[in-house]
Structures are given as structure tokens and as C-alpha cells.
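Hello K.,

You asked for the raw outputs rather than the summary table, so here they are, unedited. I folded two proteins back to back in the same session to keep the settings identical. This is the first:
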Amino acid sequence: MLNRIGLAAVILAVCTAPALADNKCGSMPIPPALPSGGDIAKMAPAAAETAKHQAFLDVKTWQTNLNDFRDCLNSLIDTDKQRMGQLDPTKDSSKITDLQMEIDGATGAHDSSVDAEEKVVNDFHAVQAAYCMRSDVDQSTCPK
């Protein structure tokens, strides 16, 4: 339950990030819904292994999509900084302000994506730990 509340808080934070770089990069990919450690503990061994493996695959897919999103944000930031450098501060102050706002929005969206990734990875580690604490599962897939 707490995992889902935390995930909802991360999603809310991302959705309220400063205009998500004017939506030029779209929205951050939606984090995967992972089972809780309690859910893993209650499952039959085969179901727990399947759930852990699926959670791993879901996190990896999401991280790939997240990297694409971040690449777009970084490109937007780099382009805006380059454009700002070509403007005359005395003549183009409103354009500079607009570009700086876009940079700030993209930076905020990037930072929110890092927070979301940290939360998802921690949630996955909780799934993995719950699985590995069981004595009735394949321990060869557990970290040493």
C-alpha cells in the first residue's frame, strides 16, 4: 500500500513539474506498477519468481523509455542554451526569458525523472529482497 502511495506521489510530482519543457518532449513514461514485498511473500514460489522477473523486465523497459525522455530533455536544454548565447540581452530579453523558462522546465522534468527512477529501483529492490528472503525459491537469482 505504501509503495503505491509513494508511486502516486512521484507521478503527481512529475505531472506538476514546470510544464514538462512545454511538452516538447512529452510526458515522463509512467512508472511500472510493481508488486509489494508483502505480495511476493504470499505468492507460491513459481508465481513469486515470475512476478520478480516480470518486475525486472518492466523496470528495464521503463528505464529505456526514461532514457529516451531524458535525451530529449537534454537536447532541448542544449539547444536552448545555444540559442540564448546567440541573442542580444539588450534587444531580446523576452526571448531570453522564455528560453530560460523552458530550460528551467526541462531541468525540473529531468530532476523529477531521476527521483522517480530512484523510487522505482528501490521498490524493485524491495521485491527482490522479499523474494530472496524466502527459503522455497531459487536462490541462484539472488545477489550474493
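The second followed immediately with the same parameters:
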Amino acid sequence: MRSNRIITSSALVTVAVLCAVTIAVASVTVRGASANGVDSGAPNWLLQGRSQNMTLSTTGKTATMRREIVCLDSDVENAEANPTLTLSGSCDSGNYLFVFQFTSTAVNLGVTIGHLSGFDQTNVNNFGVLICDSANNTIELCTNDPTGTHIPNVTATTTANSVTFTLPRGFPSYPAGTAQQGRGLTYFVITHQSSPITNQPSPLPIALPTVAIH
């Protein structure tokens, strides 16, 4: 379901150049970590390993988050056969999969992933829940629910540069996976960074998303 949020301004010239922001609401995609690669190929797909726990808070709500960055096309520049040194530390194609794992006791917790560069809000495969679906990938952050049967009714609201995940009830309790898989509900967002001039991949500098809860 889509609706337009009209942006108003007192200055007519501003109104002339601003356009409506499209907001889409959808149920989320469930993606298996195995789609991102296997353990033996981690040097090629794991660009930035899991972070330490970070505490996010807003009025009456708190959540613990860890994050990770995956190269969607298994093209970590440093692991390429002939790497481009000036692109070291990037995904060569500019295709990034950002992973965010949360635990919380809050009810009706919303998580907004913002400042997304190269985000296609119309493709529901670009955002959702990441599950640990295979013993072949045990070193990526993911939700330890191999069949995806215990994923709650998460909804997602998107704009051209953000996605907001909303969980109507409390967070479910999942068993811990490996130390690398962690424990909690794990969201993912996929972006494609390209030059606005040439439309060619522009992997650096990486546009890091912002995260906020509400």
C-alpha cells in the first residue's frame, strides 16, 4: 500500500522544486544467511565483522544492537585476485548488505535504518529478516530460526532512503547461535552505491546507514 506525504513550504520556489516522498508498507522478506556465502568464502563476502553491543534508547524503550557489513556479490576488494588498491576496504560492485541484530524487551518497537544511499524501496528483497538457515554459514550475524517459522509479524515502511521495521509485540526469544551468529532478531538492508553521473559502481566512500529506535 502506498501513499504520498506532501512536503509543504512557505516559499513558492521551494514548493516548485520539492517532490512528494513515496512511502511503501510491506511485510518483510525472510532471507537465509547461506545466500550471502559459506564459511570458507568469508574473506570474499564478510567486509566488516560483527560489532560490539551498542545500546540504543528513546523515551521508555531500549534495545541492544550489533551490526555487520557483507559484500552481496562476494567481492571484498582486498580478497580479489587483482585488487584495486584505492578501493581497499570496499565491495567492488558497490553492492552492500547491512546487517543489524537486536534484542529488546520493549513492545511495539520501531527501528529506522536511514541515510541509505542507492536503496531501491520498490524491491522487497532489499530489506527484511536474516535467518541462520544452513550449517554452511556459521559466521554471520543472523536469527537462529533455521526454517523461519518463528519470525514475528514484522512490517516495513520505506522511503527512498530509509526503511522502518515495526514489531507490534515484544521481541521473541531465540536460542543463541554460534558466537558469530549471535542472538536476537536480525534485519538486513541491501543498497547499491553508484555514481549519479556515470551510473557506474561507486563503492567508496561507503555510505553508512544511521539507526534509531522509536
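The longest strand covers residues 61-71.

Happy to rerun anything if the numbers look odd on your end.

Regards,
P.
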